[in-house]
Design brief:
110 residues; alpha+beta; Ybab, Chain: A; 3 helices; rod-shaped
Amino acid sequence: MNLAEIMEMLRNPQAIQARVNELKEKTAKITATGSSGGGMVRITMNGALEMISCEIASEVVDPNDITLLQDLVRAAYNDASARVKEELQKELSAGMEGLPIPPGMLGGLG
């Protein structure tokens, strides 16, 4: 970031705020689905990393093996979370182009 970019940013903070608000709207619309057990457990999350849905195939519901189900849910959640983070990374990288924001300022997402 050079001095001219810093000065421009200071002159027009409303433009940066508008761009940030636009990015927030776009990221709110992101959804991703993660799965485990060959698709037997599927979790869908939004851009805020909130779980939208959790689908569990009846064949993995065994009262005698709750640990397996717990592991499958955890793995599907982690898969969905990683997919959402990848989409956020893409969206933020594209949306922040041209903005004078130092690397790492967005917690590794920018």
